[in-house]
Predict the structure of DUF3443 domain-containing protein.
Amino acid sequence: MCTGALPTGPPCCLPACVSRPSDKVDRRVKRISWLALALAVPAFLAGCGGGSSTTTTISGSGLNSLGLSPAVATNFVQTENNLQIKVEEGPQSFGINTNLLYATVKVCTPGDATQCDTIDHVIVDTGSVGLRVLASKVVHAVLPPIQLSANLAPVQNAWQCFPFVIGGLWGANVKADIILGTQKTTFPPVAIQLIDDQGALAPTANCLDVTNSTAQNSNILSSAGSLGANGILGIGSTNLDCGSDCKFGQYQDRPNNIFTGSSVLYYMCPQGTSDPTACSLAPMDVPFQVSNPVSALATAFSGGVALVMPAIPDGQPGAATASGELILGVDTRANNTVPTGVRKVKLGVGMALNPDSYLSITTQFNGMTFANSYLDTGTNALFFYDPSIATCRGSTWYCPPGKMNVEALLSDGDGPVPPPLADTVAVPFQIGNFEALSSTRNTAFGNAAGYVPMTSGAPDTTTFAWGMPFFYGKKVYMSIWDITGPIVAPWYAWTAAPL
């Protein structure tokens, strides 16, 4: 059901609703999560001595004989509203292990907490919305399909195509109870996506076309090896994964020359069919869209999250692993309350006035202003364009000759540009040499950075993606729109991580 209407703008049932720019919804909901995965292969090849050029490596600096630095961790104590999270290696067949943050979740039969599957290595992604898990990992739970026309013959079940930058996810939509730590989602059951890794139904032609147009990798991700995980836990700043475009069936349909509308696609498919041509694009009403599991928790824990990650010591080239804590809820318990005096940086909500800042904040860095900025655990590095920083050979990763200690200013998405200094929050950060970092076997890096190429090949000069390196050494609070009280926009806040 709807969590409330927007105080301003077009009437709708969720903050992410917009009339035309569903590409903005898509970009903000799925963000550019995992963008680095699309770029990492050339960088890792360069960092491993590909071709005839010289390889940059690190020796000493705390590395053991296996090329690993010491692991880092926060002091985790189980409470009513937290769960442990960890940056570490993913599935063995996945070749890229840079700053991927994982959690373990439980998926249960609706109304029956005894029929559950515990799924590990689920990517924690604050840049998308919804739980998406490999269908093969659901063995014990019985998850009823979302049926769009139960009174028709044959029955029509909901399926979904969800494009990320590294590829698309195709699978059925079902209902489930979700357990995060000790907290279970409330009634009614939550809509999730079962990623089809068993070949039950091939992706539709339109799904392949949309994925090809929106992703740098046009593949459909249908295994733990291609996904780098057993699923994705999307806990971003909205409560649904699409919005009004999907509600009213306004989709991109490239085979039929429709290029506007949502690239998040919902379908109805005859129950039991193995023929993708039998599926058709279908409007998906709000109660049936894939939703944010956090917003479906009890009221005390549904307003957002706080993430606590340890710092990576400045003297070592990353860490073997990094263990932290995901705290459920904001401003409701001692462990999730933003301290007095800490500024809440609000995401932009003025879609009509400033579309570039919609569901984004503003970053000022090195004389440039990036209106499309955001904090995203699902992006595994810092991504922004600065032509003054040297790049690695044959890639868009940054490779300065030594660590760069720099600073940026972050401010509200809907604020004036440039904002008054009093309305900004200074963020010091480092830019490291990625070839050197990737020559180790560490998985957690606090200074991995590069720039974002657009589909045209030109650099993206409007985006500053504060990926996983931003979170190290901090406690980061992130609200979900329209649930947390009188503030009419979602917000970020952060402090130093507790020792």
Q: What stands out?
A: The first strand starts at residue 72 and ends at 73. The chain has a mean pLDDT of 84. The CA atoms of residues 353 and 414 lie 9 Å apart. The first helix runs from residue 22 to 29.
